[in-house]
TrEMBL record:
Protein known as: Growth factor receptor-bound protein 10a
Domain PH as annotated: residue spans: 259-368
Lineage: Eukaryota, Metazoa, Chordata, Craniata, Vertebrata
Principal location: cytoplasm
Bias (Basic residues): 50-67
One Gene Ontology term, aspect cellular component: cytoplasm
Length: 563
């Protein structure tokens, strides 16, 4: 329209034209046009930003200095009763309505922050940035020390464990777990690696807390399924008394289309009483059932005790005396929505440790299925993106180490194997002679070889000092009763001796380590002097490589980290 009214202007020079003056010129032309048609109007000039301005009588409207030398005719004044019937550009009104609708749709309680990534908003198209909600969680170690961890809403249990391993400078061997502990109920369980910590915390009471500890048995059933699932307890659901082949044992649990079943006898605590009733139980994908008529598996005789979807399996830590349990092998099925109501808890008791482990492991497999296998394989497939959470591993292999001789001015590599072995023996004898010479000269106690060998083991994670036998049992059970799990402690009966506590086939055994003196030096032996060691560190390293008189090698040290 401007070019039509002013053909002498070039389009490239429109930015040098006073648009306000041009608009006023158009208003005056429209007024003269409608005045000739005897139409009663009132002048309403269109200014910038779609605002309407009516000048007062006797005063010319304010105008900026024109950049162009073209004069602009004055705006004729008229009576306020006269109204001008003109049309404004439609796109300006549409833009104004769009702004008004956006202002009405925008929540008044949220800040008007424009989101540069609107496709990431929830709900879709929201112009407001969403905030990331975090929760402060207190995580405690075995010694009662705690650490505050800021946990986002989407943080998994494995991520929290890796964060604590990184901050506590622990060895990341993928065996750390986050434990949900309820002291008032006497219950605890290890969180699965994929569980969201914030969701679990929402179902916990103020007295409940998270513990950070080792759990070697978390995925041990994938490595040794025969130790966890006795053949007499696992059977097909649709085929009566049909045993599952051991090669397909775990596949049937992980495959959602199959119907595995765990069956056996369990003691059930009656609601509101301290009495227990021995019942025949059946664990299936649909839930845990008990038979109202002996061992009958007919549908009319089966009663649902608990489902798997909204429940979790816990270990009872209070002992058998509190609930008057028939055995020490208790466990509990707790609904997720229940916080402190004991009436909703399903207290169960097995006849031995193997059957309790089978029931609890089958409960996890039937509830989570393939997710457990993905959690088990995930650390093995993890690569460099999260390597900063792990402890640096020695990059030089043992095969690249060579024997060297530094007796001359320059060192040389000993290539002859016999010469290398003789050099190692000679160096060991030199250190022993030096130790005897220091002992004869009356060296300080801190440098005394026998004194050093008697205290150097106290710096190791597997040594736990003066703890009683029951406490060592508790620590072994909490960190998973797998083959090779061990700890060392002081002997209660002999103040100079030590005890090796070892787990094998879900049974805990104790072996006494006795001191013996040879050529004025204190040595330690586990097999009545047949094999002697200068200190307990050498003893542990030997039995980590050789079984000797033990039922299995030492594999997993029972450790307690201080946060």
């Amino acid at each position: 329209q401007i070019l039509a009214r002013h053909p002498d202007l070039h389009p490239l020079y429109l930015h040098d034209v006073d648009l306000e003056a041009l608009v006023n010129d158009m208003n005056s032309s429209l007024e003269s046009l409608y005045s000739s048609c005897n139409t009663h109007t009132e002048t309403a000039p269109l200014l910038h930003n779609s605002h309407v301005h009516t000048p007062h009588h006797g005063h010319a409207p304010h105008r900026r200095g024109p950049r162009s030398q073209r004069p602009t005719p004055p705006i004729p004044l008229s009576c306020p009763q006269e109204r001008l019937c003109r049309s404004q550009p439609v796109h300006i009104n549409a833009f104004m309505r769009l702004q008004e609708e956006q202002q009405q749709c925008r929540p008044s309680s949220l800040p008007a922050v424009i989101n540069p990534f609107p496709e990431l908003c929830t709900p879709t198209g929201s112009p407001i940035l969403s905030l990331i909600h975090t929760t402060d969680n207190h995580v405690y170690s075995e010694d009662g020390a705690g650490k505050v961890v800021e946990v986002p809403a989407d943080m998994r249990a494995r991520d929290v464990c890796q964060l604590l391993v990184y901050k506590s400078h622990c060895l990341d061997d993928n065996s750390w777990s986050l434990v949900e502990h309820h002291p008032l109920l006497g219950l605890e369980r290890c969180l699965e690696d994929h569980e969201l910590v914030v969701q679990v915390q929402a179902s916990m009471t103020s007295d409940s807390k998270f513990l950070f500890r080792k759990n070697y048995a978390k995925y041990e059933f994938f490595r040794n399924p025969l130790n966890f699932f006795p053949e007499q307890m696992v059977a097909w659901c649709q085929v009566s008394n049909g045993s599952i082949p051991q090669s397909q044992l775990l596949q049937n649990f992980l495959n959602s289309s199959s119907c595995p079943e765990v069956q056996g006898f369990l003691y059930l605590k009656e609601s509101g009483r301290k009495s227990w009733k021995r019942l025949s139980m059946f664990l299936r994908r649909s839930g845990l059932y008990y038979s109202t008529k002996g061992s009958s598996k007919e549908p009319r005789h089966l009663q649902l005790l608990s489902d798997l979807e909204d429940s979790s399996v816990f270990t009872v830590t209070t002992g058998r005396k509190l609930h008057n349990a028939p055995t020490d092998y208790q466990f509990c099925i707790k609904p997720s929505k229940v916080r402190s109501e004991c009436k909703e808890l399903r207290m169960l008791c097995a006849e031995d440790e193997q059957s309790r482990t089978c029931w609890m492991t089958a409960f996890r497999l039937l509830k989570y299925g393939i997710l457990l296998y993905q959690n088990y394989k995930s650390p093995q497939q993890r690569k460099s993106p999260v390597s900063h959470f792990s402890t640096p591993v020695r990059s030089v292999s043992e095969n690249s180490l060579v024997a060297m001789d530094f007796s001359g001015r320059t060192g040389r590599v000993i290539e002859n194997p016999m010469e290398a072995q003789n050099a190692a023996v000679e160096e060991g004898q030199t250190w022993r002679k030096r130790g005897h010479r220091m002992n004869a000269l009356g060296s300080p106690s801190l440098l005394h070889p026998s004194s050093l060998s008697s205290v150097i083991h106290r710096t190791q994670l597997w040594f736990h000092g003066r703890i009683i036998r029951e406490e060592s049992h508790k620590m072994i059970m909490q960190q998973g009763q797998v083959d090779g799990l061990f700890l060392l402690r002081d002997s209660q009966s002999n103040p100079k001796a030590f005890v090796l506590t070892l787990c094998h086939h879900q049974k805990i055994r104790h072996f006494q380590i006795l001191p013996c003196e040879e050529e004025g030096q204190m040595l330690f032996s586990l097999d009545d002097g047949s094999t002697k060691f200068t200190d307990l560190i050498h003893l542990v390293e030997f039995y980590q490589l050789n079984r000797g008189v033990l039922p299995c090698k030492l594999k997993h040290p029972c450790t307690a980290v201080a946060l």
